[in-house]
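Example record

One chain of 368 residues, shown exactly as stored in the release files.
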Amino acid sequence: MKKKIIRNIEWGILVCTILLIAIGMVALFSATQSTEYEELKKQIMWLIISIPVMIVIICIDYELIAKVSPFFYVICLILLVAVLFTESINGASSWFTVGPFSIQPSEFAKIFVILTFSFVITKIQARGRDEISRPTRLILALLIVAVPVFLIIKQPDYGTALAFLVATVLILFVAGIKKRYIFSCIAIVIVAVPLLYFFILPDHAKSRIDIFLNPDLDPRGAGYNVIQSKLAVGSGQLFGMGILKGNQTQLGFLYPKSTDFIFSVIGEEMGFVATAGIVIAYVMLITKSIYVAKTAKDDLGAYIAMGIAGIFLFHMVENIGMTIGLLPITGVPLPFVSYGGSSLLTNLILVALLINISGRRQKAIFAE
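Predicted C-alpha cells for this chain:
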C-alpha cells in the first residue's frame, strides 16, 4: 500500500515548491545582508522545523486529519481572539511574539478552516448532494468561514481575509452549489464595494485604494512603496542587475523588501527570467492542485485540494499584482518566497496535504 501511495504522488507539486523556496532563499540572502542575514537564518530554521511536520502529515490519512480538524479550528478561533489584545505591529494586531519569533495565528487558521469547512460540507452532503444548496445548511457551513474572517478583519488584515473567501468560493463551486447563489454573491459584492469604501473601510485602507488608482497622489507617502517597487521590477530588465547589486534593494528604497516586496527584489536583481520562472512555477503548482482535486478518491479530498489551490492562487495574484501596481497593496506575502515563519510552515503543511490526497487517490489503491 505504501509503495502504491508513493508511486501515485504528484511529485510536480513538491518540485515547484522546492524551486520557489530556493529562489526565495536567494532573494532573502540579498535582501537581508544589511541585518546580517537575521531573517534568512530564521527562515532556514522554520524550513527545518517544517520538514518533519510535512512528513508526519503525509503519513496520516487526510480523512483522519479532517475528522480532528474541528478541535484545532476552535483553538485557532481562541488565538484569533487573543491576538487582538496584543501590541499592534505596523498597524495590525496579528502576531504573538515568542522570544525572537513572531507567530501569526491567521496563517495557521487557513489550514483548519479549509479542513473543517470541507469536512462539514461532506457531512451535509451525506444526506444528499443538493443539501448544501439549502439556505439553512449553507449558512451553517459559511459560519465556519465567517467567524475567523471577521476576527481577521478586526486585526485588521484584509488581504488574509480575502484569501479565505477565495478558497471558500472555489470549494463551494466544486461542491456543486446552485448557480443562483453564485450570481447573488456577485450582485452583493457589486453593491457592497462602494458601500464598504465610503462607510466602513478605515482611512488607511481607503488610502491604499486611492494610491493604487493614482500613486502620484502621494509619491513620498502612501504611494512611495508601489512607485519604488515598480522602479525596481522595471530596472531589472531581462537578466537583472545581479545578486546584491540592485539599487532599490541595497540602498533601502524598498520596504518591506523581505516580505511584501520580495518579488520586486527578484525582479530587480534576477530580472524577467526569474520572475517569469516564479509565475510559471505557481501556475504549475495551482494546476497540479486542481488536478489533485479532480482525481481525489472522495469529495473531502477534492474540497480540501481546491481550497488549497484557492489560497495559493489568491496569494500569487495579489502579491505579484500589488508589486507591479496592478492591485492595491494589502500586505499579502508571496508563498514560499517571502520571509515569514508562520507563512512558510502553513504553506508547507498545505503542500503536505496535497501530497497526502494525491497519494491516496483511487488509482493509487487499486491500480497495479
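Notes: Confidence is low (pLDDT under 50) at residues 364-368.
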